[in-house]
Amino acid sequence: MSTTPQTTVTLESRFARELEELSVPWRADDVADPRLLVLNEPLAAELGLDPEWLRSPEGARLLVGNLVPAGAMPVAQAYSGHQFGSFSPRLGDGRALLLGEVVDAEDHRWDLHLKGSGRTPFARGGDGLAAVGPMLREYVVSEAMHALGVPTTRSLAVVATGRQVRRESLLPGAVLARVASSHLRVGSFQYARATGDLDLLRRLADHAVSRHHPQAAEAEHPYLALFEAVVAAQASLVARWMLLGFVHGVMNTDNTTISGETIDYGPCAFLDVFDPSAVFSSIDHGGRYAYRNQPVAAQWNLARLAEALLPLLDEDQDRAVSLAEGALEAFPRQYSAAWSAGMRSKLGLPGDLDDEVAATLVDDVLVLLQQNHVDWTSFFRALGGTARTGAHAARDLVLDLPAFDAWAERWRAAGPDPDVMDRVNPAYISRNHLVEEALASAVDGDLDPLGRLLEAVTSPYEERPGLERYAAGPPDDFGAYTTYCGT
After folding, report:
1. With pLDDT > 90 as the criterion, what percentage of the chain qualifies?
2. What is the pLDDT of residues 409-446, one digit of tens each?
């Protein structure tokens, strides 16, 4: 394995050096002949990385972890997690590595992180590998989410390893290189708290404040301010998911970030027809992370963060609990405010419209969509055309026309703004059937469908001729959709 430095790549290792108790130094499995499948050139340029060099054989070796720049310290991160409500004290990166941190031209720090790079001490019986399909899924959906304005980890590249991965069948292997403002999670704090090392917990909190919520350092109670900032970030994030019809699928505490970024695109999906009970994950048998349950799940996860932080909030246990509960009580209000504001925008409602009138319009349209099994994304995009020209595309999606007409009369009377609507209601999302089509072709060696899908979803609000099929709902024979974790 080479450790030859490359002048085009410099990686720092602040996390590994400041919080060595929360990681294990490790190296990626050797890949004999890495082959770049897809590279996010705009992201590379934002990070100050040379796309041309990343496309070279040496660049591919960096992207699978086989070329480590001098001074970098790759580590597998340690964390705990509640998985579907059950606590696992030692999870960690079983098939992932933090290569290091890139500092961009604006002095922002970004993790460069690999998934599928081989077994680590946290593998728990897994093979540490990943298949091409799931890694390309994360690439497509994370970049679509970024284009939709959702805070998210991003995908820099997917590199084929030439190695077969055994799942239900043998599949071609790949490594995903992804970027995040950090990979700190609720589970990171749970792990630190479980060690009983108060100094470690404090250093982790200080690291999180410095990296994500620096304003908390100036507060009278910095660690309480940190918790309040994470609560606010998660309330905003989950509201964005809900407004777009996104179902994460595996909202465990190890997938709840301190930064407020979306992480882990395994069993995720977007709603087609509006169904609050929608579940797409093959392992979510009880619907714990169903679409409508996501705000409740997020608040539950934040309660687990509060428990981990209690020793830092106050030496008196009762006082610490009281402070944590007070901060956590802000979540429903913050989520509701973000959701309500977002729905007003989706309907183009003017800012001076009475709140009760707006809330009734929102509630009634949700009932209409659910009862008529209406496509979530198509309806709101088409409704902008109704506001602009009176077009019938939105009406044509509804079976109960008298109910739609009655609602639409009240809505039009409010004076909706179609320009506002078009800015928040996407024409293109990474629709489930299109993702599956692109992944199946990619696994067979044809990346063209993937490229065309990326072209659509990375400019989601701009309708373009020739992309009509990317705005359409699934074909009638698509059927029920099930997603998997990819491990």
Report:
1. 94
2. 999 999 999 999 999 999 999 999 999 999 999 999 99
Tokens 């609050």, residue located: 276
Please, are residues 33 and 18 in contact by the beta-carbon 8 Å criterion?
no
Do you know the residue count of the chain?
Answer: 487
Considering the candidates 111, 254, 375, 422, report the single residue annotated as catalytic.
254
Q: Residue 481 contacts by C-beta under 8 Å, 6 or more apart in sequence?
A: 269, 272, 280, 432, 433
Nearest to 14 by CA among 296, 211, 300, 169: 211
Q: Where are the domains of the chain?
A: 14-180, 349-416
Helix (H) / strand (E) containing 75: strand 75-77
Place of tokens 């044809």: 446
Residue 12, phi then psi, degrees to nearest 5: -100, 170
Burial class (CB in 10 A: 0-12, 13-18, 19+), 10: middle
Q: Each residue of 315-373: pLDDT tens digit?
A: 999 999 999 999 999 999 999 999 999 999 999 999 999 999 999 999 999 999 999 99
CA torsion angle for 14, 20, 23, 26 (degrees, to 10)?
Answer: 80
The residue that leads in pLDDT, 3 or 154, is 154
Question: Band of the pLDDT at 486, cuts 50, 70, 90?
Answer: low
The strand order across the sheet containing 75-77 reads 23-25, 75-77, 96-103, 109-115, 170-180, 154-166, 35-39
The whole-angstrom separation of Cα 48 and Cα 50 is 7
Q: Which residues pair with 36 in a beta bridge?
A: 159
- The whole-angstrom separation of Cα 155 and Cα 402 is 46
**Identity of the residue numbered 355:** D
Q: Are 116 and 95 in contact (CB under 8 A)?
A: yes
Nearest to 23 by CA among 115, 116, 100, 102: 100
CA distance 451 to 24: 37
- Is residue 254 annotated as a catalytic residue, yes or no? yes
Which tens digits make up the pLDDT trace of 368-391?
999 999 999 999 999 999 999 999
Select from 86, 158, 153 the least CA-distant residue to 116.
Answer: 158
- Say what the alpha-carbon torsion angle 84, 86, 91, 93 is, to the nearest 10 degrees: 10
Is the distance from CB of 162 to CB of 35 less than 8 angstroms? yes
The pTM assigned to this predicted structure is 0.96
10 Å CB burial of residue 181 (0-12, 13-18, 19+) is buried
CB atoms within 10 A of CB 7: 8
Is 444 strand, coil or helix? coil
Q: Quick check: 485 pLDDT over 80?
A: no
> What three-state secondary structure class fits 211?
helix
